Amino acid sequence: MPSPAVCASAQDLIAALHFVDPARLAQARVEATARPLAYALGSGEADEVALFAGLKPLLRQVLPAAELPAARARFGRLGLALGETSHRVSGPSTGGTVLFVGRDERRVREAIACEASADHDLELGRLLGYPRCCVEAYLELPPPRHNVDAFHRAFAASRQFAPRLNCLDLSIFHFISWLPCSFDCATSKAWADAVAHHLTARHGQFLGGARGASPPPCPPGCRHERFVAEVDLALGAHRLLAFEDVQVSITGPLEDGVLEVGRAWPSARDRHPQAPLNEQAREASARLAALVARARGVFVRDGALFADGVPIFQARDARLFPFGARPQEASRAG
Ligand SMILES: [Zn+2]
Ligand SMILES: [Zn+2]
Questions:
Q1: Rounded alpha-carbon distances, angstroms, from residue 287 to 66, 237, 293, 313
Q2: What is the pLDDT of residue 334?
Q3: Which-ligand-closest: CA of 186?
Q4: Does the pLDDT at position 16 exceed 80?
Q5: 147 CA distance to ligand 2 centroid (A)?
Q6: Ligand 1 centroid to 134 CA: how many Å?
Q7: Cα–Cα distance for residue pair 88/181, rounded to 1 Å
Q8: Minimal CA–CA distance to 330: which of 159, 152, 153?
Q9: CA–CA separation, 207 vs 29, rounded Å?
């Protein structure tokens, strides 16, 4: 059996997948940029929905100075308590101001004090309303903590894969705003379902009501409800992750640890319309989707992707997350 190409980057993967079917590739390239989901809100805004729904006590956002006035005005109009402080660690990715928003002024003040303390992760997680199991699992990872490491850890701890806990691509809408301890964490699941329910049934009403009028509840089939249905479909496909920014969504049944491919598309298709993806990641995602779409069955073993039994490439982070599995299939996902 040939040994698979070892890939350390999207560039490597593009080279390794030089042979994919041109027609499939052309289609996958279109899908990688398509963005057909009608986003009713930003990819990371579940946090705000949870705050408005009363599920979440406090929101923390790190904002560049230019965006601060608009955010203050928006939350202020909704009658929420606001507080801000500078970011504890300053660097290119962490520059900006930390804005806390909550219903309770005292909690906002506590959070500002907490932000300044050196070892604040557990306490800040509590104030923000994150599940303790998930915060602890995250903190057990050795720093620097990469998202993919947290995904692998959660993968190993999961017996099932709840689609609404699929946060593998943070530019696709996700119902939880922390990295879960497992993809069947009961606390996280209950939270995600509550956010989905609020978004479907009451979110439009809340935002409308906050502007002073008292609008009727959203009618059945409103854009929020349609959005949740579309997101559920996107998150409920199996997810092949090669790198954090190179992912492919796949439908189909799992049989004896092999995913029988129905449809495959670059997951970036389901991202928020304004979420960019760099050119190499986009091309690698398209090639990977084209490869998988042509295969009858795929699986990942020890970081190697097998298509129809042939090892294609190997990457440290490669995993197949069976979010599309029916409950009885999940334990056999490999
Ligand atoms: Zn948890
Ligand atoms: Zn609505």
A1: 38, 18, 10, 12
A2: 45
A3: 1
A4: yes
A5: 32
A6: 4
A7: 25
A8: 159
A9: 37
Vertex 175 angle, CA 174 and 180, to 5°? 85
pLDDT of residue 207: 61
- Give residue-wise pLDDT tens across range 120-135: 889 999 999 999 999 9
pLDDT at 156: 97
Q: Is the model's pTM score more than 0.85?
A: yes
Contact 324/28 with Cβ under 8 angstroms? Answer: no
Q: Can you give the pLDDT at residue 101? A: 96
DSSP state of 38: -
Give the position of tokens 């059945």. Answer: 220
Order of strands, sheet of 238-243, starting from the edge strand that comes earlier in the sequence: 264-266, 246-250, 238-243, 319-321
Domain ranges of the chain: 5-39+237-332, 57-128
How much distance in Å is there from the Cα of 135 to the middle of ligand 1? 7
- Residue 56 corresponds to which amino acid? K
Find the ligand nearest to 41 CA: 2
Pairing mode, strands 304-307 and 297-301: antiparallel
Q: Summarize pLDDT for 101-112 with one digit per residue, the tens.
A: 999 999 999 999
DSSP per residue over 216-257, as a string?
PPPPTT-HHHHHHHHHHHHHTSEEEEEETTEEEEE---EETT
